[in-house]
Design brief:
Layout lengths: L4 H11 L3 E7 L4 H9 L8 E4 L2 E6 L1 H10 L3 E12 L3 H9 L28 E7 L6 H19 L21 E7 L2 E7 L21 H10 L8 E3 L6 H10 L20 H12 L10 E5 L2 H13 L6 E5 L7 H4 L5 E4 L10 H18 L4 E6 L2 H4 L6 E8 L2 E9 L2
Parallel strand pairs: 5-6, 8-9, 8-11, 9-10, 11-12
Antiparallel strand pairs: 1-3, 1-4, 2-3, 4-7, 6-7, 12-14, 13-14
Helix pairs in contact: 3-8, 4-5, 6-7
């Protein structure tokens, strides 16, 4: 059977070529992601930390590996074009050179005619940021990209396909694609998102509790606090259970992307067999733990009930113990004979009431920690910078943004 000419081009320009990627990371946690990335068996040892993420080079299967395994990355982008344009005529010429058919889902030989309008309903989402450039109107830039993609596919006689690769993508929404465009000082960087849903969506939780911490932030906090996966972990204000679930996945060596799908699974370059092999190799390293090491609790019974169902559904009952208890009634000495790590994201702001009430709760939490958790490691999220100075034991602070708020992650030892 003769190989389709487009398949040959995909092999030559996409799967057979070393490509540039960018792991997007919450500011302040880039070095953690770099350490994670460089520990993976990537085909190319080339990665550098930059503001907001990690740049690295590799082959397509390295894109699979990073999406599956990186706990602190927000999404993985693959660069597909870089050029300079100072006016829209230049931009249109440059865009006409981009081989969109090598990256976006398609059906070879589809009878769609040459009407550009036929592709309007299937266009990928375009996300534009522009700074210090002569072309700065985001809507106008987006329109040029959409027209370029539609025209390219109409000319090649291909139709966007949102059910590509049969059994791996049938009836799944992850085939929806997104193009990221960054314009800085007249230079365009064009990337395709390989992740789809943002990577902190692990596939365990369908919804969060009140002000849940993101899984990527929880993973960063656990790593910065020195969680070794073998020690007890107490999560006494667990809420939706993000810290506990993330720690359980780390302890059982379950990749963060194990339970979800990715946008790259809809690409024409996607290799299902290679993806299956990568997952099979990961599964060999799973660790079965039947002794409770993680103790999650919250005074909200409905939150505990939901967490318990998630734990049972994902076969984590052996490692996580859930109880409905108020933080001030939990005594670590009754849970375990060992010291370990205590993780806390105390409620703040409108969840508590006035600022004075929020501050009072934080101070009470710190007193309880000093009295009963001496010798324990801690990861504590402080809602306001002024509270950091009020902590009665010395901790190291890491500032980060979460849901539009500036928070501080405090890690160290309780003395």
């Amino acid at each position: 059977m003769t190989e389709h000419p487009l398949s040959k081009r995909i092999k030559r320009h996409v799967t057979g070529r070393i490509r540039e990627f960018f792991a997007v990371v919450s500011p302040g946690f880039e070095k953690l992601c770099f350490d994670e990335l460089t520990s993976l068996p990537l085909s190319v040892r080339s990665a550098i930390v930059v503001s907001g993420g990690v740049e690295f080079r590799g082959r397509i299967h390295d894109c699979y590996l990073t999406n599956l395994n990186l706990r602190t990355a927000t999404r993985i982008l693959m660069r597909i074009g870089m050029f300079k344009a100072t006016n829209f005529c230049q931009l249109e010429r440059k865009l006409a050179e981009l081989p969109w058919e090598l990256f976006l889902p398609f059906v070879p030989g589809a009878e769609a005619g040459n009407k550009t309008e036929a592709y309007a309903d299937f266009l990928p989402q375009i996300s534009v940021t522009a700074r210090h450039s002569r072309l700065y109107h985001k809507a106008a830039i987006t329109e040029r990209f959409q027209k370029s993609i539609s025209k390219r596919f109409a000319q090649t006689g291909l139709l966007f396909n949102f059910e590509a690769n049969s059994e791996f993508t049938k009836n799944l929404s992850f085939c929806s694609q997104q193009i990221f465009v960054r314009v800085l000082e007249d230079r365009f960087t064009v990337s395709i998102d390989s992740s789809g849903d943002i990577l902190y969506k692990r596939g365990i939780k369908t919804h969060g509790g009140n002000a849940p911490i993101r899984e990527t932030i929880a993973a960063a906090a656990l790593k910065l606090a020195g969680y070794n996966c073998n020690e007890p972990l107490v999560d006494p204000m667990c809420g939706s259970g993000t810290f506990s679930l993330e720690a359980a996945m780390m302890a059982t060596n379950t990749p963060p992307g194990w339970l979800r799908n990715f946008a790259f699974m809809g690409w024409p370059s996607f290799r299902p067999r290679r993806w299956s092999y990568i997952k099979q190799e990961s599964e060999k390293n799973f660790i079965q733990i039947d002794t409770p090491l993680i103790f999650a609790s919250d005074k909200d019974k409905s939150a505990c009930d939901i967490l318990q169902k998630r734990i049972e559904r994902n076969d984590l009952s052996g490692i996580i113990n859930v109880s409905c208890s108020d933080f001030f009634d939990v005594s670590p000495s009754k849970l375990t004979k060992q010291t370990g790590l205590v993780v806390l994201n105390p409620p703040y702001g409108l969840r508590i009431g006035t600022k004075q009430e929020s501050d009072h709760l934080f101070h009470a939490v710190c007193r309880k920690l000093k009295q009963e958790y001496k010798g324990w490691k801690i990861a504590l999220i402080a809602p306001d910078a002024h509270l950091v100075k009020k902590v009665p034991f010395k901790l190291t602070g890491h500032r980060f943004s979460h849901g539009g708020l500036e928070l501080t992650l405090l890690v160290g030892n309780i003395t």
